[in-house]
């Protein structure tokens, strides 16, 4: 097997090679680091490469395997983390200049849990400033081109994670998702992105954007791999009061259970008018057909409250972001990028009563949507309404992602077809809270029986 073939394997497949000592973690990590060094000058996927740290971790992983100890299915496998998650002794810039010199005192909980399972973290991925953009635009460090078509954008805000996974330089990466920041770049880069239920995964040690909307989750090239990473990440954390004492399922063990008898609502009207480009709608249609052939029952349901919740969540996000970053607005405004500074300042145009009124409206909209979907197990919408825009174009494209942040429901995107300019589109599948097992089961059906069949940029 060539080096290129090894790098294109899904995480679960290469993990089996490491476990069987067919390739060492040191060899695998060296391949990953060499590919990052080769591609990063043009991809800009990594803000920071941690070569020496990764090599040390790979050596430990090999030593443990030689001694008969395997930490878990991530043991010895190179992955990346988004550069808003702390790693002790390393700066966490979160795409900004004002945080660039802040050295983390301890690991974020996501990093701690991944390394406890034996993952080898090779670097921290690029992102827009403070994760405050649906695109990869960053005035300080530059954008991240789409790996399928470099004149187009990779999406935000987990831009580098999406690019790195799609380009096969790592086997998985973490992202954060406040309004779609895992699912949007995953959609645009043609990979799997999973936003868990709010409170399922700790965000302790991760730079925040919105306290009530932030989620942490995995980005991979296969649904099973996302489930493996979620198995490592999920669970209550005393450091993050948003996490809940809810039982954690065996997500990787759920993946192949299928969807026979599962009731699926396909949103026919979200209240926002035209639903998406022809390729987007074709991708959704083919994904739904795969679910139906696998035994799911399908019904079309109008949920006009979606668009209202999408608009409302974005206002609440801006207010929460301004609360978190107010010290920089007051003390170091010139250190902020213009786009971020303007968005944060816009929060002060809201009346003092808006946040409470908006939170009450959010609760009412959540109740209305819950009632419409009470008889269903899953709900389907596009990942995004369009293919990746050109670099430098920032579109308000959280129409289908933001509502699930406001609801707090788990959602997965799975690529389906290539649209205009050879760019991917995806289906999005969501479930009621704490049912990540259902979304990975449905996502696996679409992956297995749908039209995508493992396409990779430059290789499909």
Walk me through this protein's architecture.
This protein is of the alpha+beta class and 460 residues long. Helices cover 39% and strands 16% of the residues. It is built from 15 helices and 13 strands. It has helices at residues 3-8, 11-19, 25-43, 51-66, 109-116, 159-166, 183-189, 223-233, 251-254, 278-293, 305-331, 338-346, 354-372, 402-407, 436-449; strands at 46-49, 78-82, 120-125, 145-146, 149-153, 172-177, 192-195, 215-220, 263-269, 297-302, 378-382, 411-418, 424-431. The strands form 3 sheets. Strands 6-8-7-12-13-11-9-10 form an 8-stranded mixed beta sheet, with helices on both faces. A 3-stranded mixed beta sheet has the order 1-3-2, with helices on both faces. The longest helix has 27 residues, at 305-331. The chain starts with a helix and ends in an 11-residue tail after the last helix. The mean pLDDT is 97.
Can you tag this structure with a few keywords?
single chain; 460 residues; alpha+beta; 8-stranded mixed β-sheet; 3-stranded mixed β-sheet; 15 helices; 13 strands; globular
Please outline the helices and strands.
Blueprint: H1 3-8, H2 11-19, H3 25-43, E1 46-49, H4 51-66, E2 78-82, H5 109-116, E3 120-125, E4 145-146, E5 149-153, H6 159-166, E6 172-177, H7 183-189, E7 192-195, E8 215-220, H8 223-233, H9 251-254, E9 263-269, H10 278-293, E10 297-302, H11 305-331, H12 338-346, H13 354-372, E11 378-382, H14 402-407, E12 411-418, E13 424-431, H15 436-449
Parallel strand pairs: 2-3, 9-10, 9-11
Antiparallel strand pairs: 1-3, 4-5, 6-8, 7-8, 7-12, 11-13, 12-13
């Amino acid at each position: 097997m060539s080096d290129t073939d090894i790098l294109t394997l899904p995480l679960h497949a290469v993990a089996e090679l490491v476990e069987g000592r067919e390739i060492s973690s040191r060899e695998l990590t060296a391949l990953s680091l060499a590919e990052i060094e080769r591609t990063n000058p043009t991809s800009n996927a990594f803000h920071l490469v941690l070569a020496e740290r990764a090599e040390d971790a790979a050596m430990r992983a090999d030593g443990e395997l030689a001694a008969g100890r395997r930490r878990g299915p991530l043991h010895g496998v190179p992955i990346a983390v988004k550069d808003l998650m702390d790693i002790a002794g390393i700066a966490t810039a979160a795409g900004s200049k004002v945080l660039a010199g802040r050295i983390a005192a301890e690991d974020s909980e996501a990093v701690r849990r991944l390394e406890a399972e034996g993952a080898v973290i090779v670097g921290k991925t690029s992102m827009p400033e403070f994760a405050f953009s649906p695109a990869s635009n960053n005035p300080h460090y530059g954008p991240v081109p789409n790996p399928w078509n470099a004149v187009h954008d990779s999406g935000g805000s987990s831009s580098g994670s999406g690019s790195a996974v799609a380009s096969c330089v790592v086997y998985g990466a973490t992202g954060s998702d406040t309004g779609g920041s895992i699912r949007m770049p995953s959609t645009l880069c043609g990979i799997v992105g999973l936003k868990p239920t709010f409170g399922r995964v700790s965000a302790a040690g991760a730079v925040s954007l919105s306290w009530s909307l932030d989620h942490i989750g995995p980005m991979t090239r296969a649904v099973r791999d996302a489930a493996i990473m979620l198995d490592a990440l999920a669970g209550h954390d005393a450091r993050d009061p948003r996490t809940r004492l809810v039982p954690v399922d065996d997500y990787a063990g759920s993946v192949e259970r299928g969807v026979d008898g599962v009731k699926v609502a396909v949103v026919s009207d979200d209240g926002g008018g035209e639903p998406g480009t022809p390729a987007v709608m074709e991708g959704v249609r083919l994904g739904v057909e795969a679910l139906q052939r696998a035994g799911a029952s399908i019904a079309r349901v109008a949920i006009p409250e979606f668009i209202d919740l999408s608009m409302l969540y974005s206002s609440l996000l801006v207010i929460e972001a301004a609360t978190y970053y107010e010290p920089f607005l007051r003390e170091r405004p010139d250190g902020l990028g213009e786009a971020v500074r303007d968005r944060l300042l816009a929060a002060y145009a809201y009346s003092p009563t808006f946040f409470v009124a908006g939170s009450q409206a959010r609760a009412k909209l959540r109740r209305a949507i819950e009632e419409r979907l009470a008889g269903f197990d899953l709900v389907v919408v596009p990942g995004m309404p369009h293919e990746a825009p050109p670099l430098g174009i920032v579109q308000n494209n959280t129409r289908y992602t933001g509502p699930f942040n406001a609801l707090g429901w788990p959602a997965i995107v799975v690529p389906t077809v290539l649209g205009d300019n050879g760019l991917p589109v995806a289906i999005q599948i969501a479930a009621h809270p704490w049912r990540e097992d259902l979304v990975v089961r449905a996502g696996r059906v679409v992956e297995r029986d749908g039209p995508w069949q493992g396409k990779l940029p430059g290789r499909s």
